[in-house]
Amino acid sequence: MSEAAQVIDISSDEKLPQELERKKDVIKRTVAKDANNDEFEMFMHLAKTYRLDPFQKEIFLWKMKGQVTIMTSRDGYLKIANRHPSFNGLDSGVIYPGDKFKKQDGKIEHEMNIANMNKKPIGAYATVHRKDREIPISIVAPFSEYQKNSNVWRSYPSAMILKVAESMALKRAFSVSGLVSHEEMGVEDPKRLPDENNGKPLPEKQIQYDAETVRIDENEKRKDELFELVKGLDQE
Questions:
Q1: Angle 91-96-99 from CA coordinates, rounded to 5°
Q2: Phi and psi dihedrals of 181, rounded to 5?
Q3: Which H or E element spans position 61?
Q4: Distances from the Cα of 7 to the Cαs of 55, 80, 136, 225, in angstroms?
Q5: What's the first-to-final CA gap in the chain, in angstroms?
Q6: What does the pLDDT read at residue 8?
Q7: DSSP alpha helices (H): ranges in the chain?
Q8: What is the pTM for the complete model shown?
Q9: What is the per-residue pLDDT across 60-90, written as a single tens digit (0 to 9) for each?
């Protein structure tokens, strides 16, 4: 077993910040090996604050062209939410052409036609409920804004856009800052992003994770259709 794989052995994540501090030299050599001292301190601060385990890939650091991004995942946001005493559930779904939904008392009510599931998704929604808030947090994520140049998005478009919507809703509901989800960035693992050549990793210069990878032209129609569906939600 590798050194990184066996360093965290705790019964409760309440102890995780102390354990991370104790093993910070290992983290510096492995998970955050590309970070300078300031970047490493920022990474450690976020890992401790949100009690996310870098050795379980709940939080990781990606450095490209001198710019650092600290990422988690939908499951990382969900872990943060599940620890919060006010978390009262997550409702979400994928939106396909022809679906109908409305906003009622802050919650999105989705009426899906099963026959539409063989079509390409146009978006996803997520609603987070908190016991201490009368109005839940609802998010709609247009597919066209998040379609990325990666195999995982092409192979599992519905699952990926759903994770984006859930990530955004959880992040907003629990005021998570300083992190982005790798689903939003369009990658499952930025260190091992596959290309079209038998799954071999792409050279770093070919990895794109921002708006340059969005296929605006072919998805503009779907984007317009989604906006038509949700038009007026905020006014209801």
A1: 80
A2: -90, 145
A3: strand 60-64
A4: 8, 22, 39, 49
A5: 56
A6: 43
A7: 16-22, 24-29, 37-50, 74-83, 151-155, 157-173, 182-185, 216-230
A8: 0.70
A9: 888 888 888 899 989 999 999 999 999 999 9
Report the sign of the C-alpha dihedral through residues 171, 172, 173, 177, in that order: positive
The SS3 call for residue 190 is helix
Q: What is the pLDDT of residue 67?
A: 86
Contact 113, 94 (CB under 8 A): no
Smallest CA-to-CA distance from 103 within 115, 91, 87, 114 is with: 91
What does the pLDDT look like over 21-51, one tens digit per residue? 999 999 999 989 889 999 999 999 999 999 9
pLDDT at residue 212 in the model: 35
What letter would DSSP give residue 11? S
- What region does 199 belong to: left with phi over 0, alpha with psi -120 to 50, or beta? left
Print the SS3 string covering 119-157. CCCCEEEEEEEECCCCCCEEEEEEHHHCCCCCHHHHHCH
Q: What are phi and psi of 153, to 5 degrees?
A: -70, -35
Q: Which residues, at least 6 apart from 56, have a Cβ–Cβ distance to it below 8 Å? A: 8
Q: Which residue has the tokens 């071999």?
A: 200
Q: Is 110 helix (H, G, I), strand (E, B) or coil?
A: strand
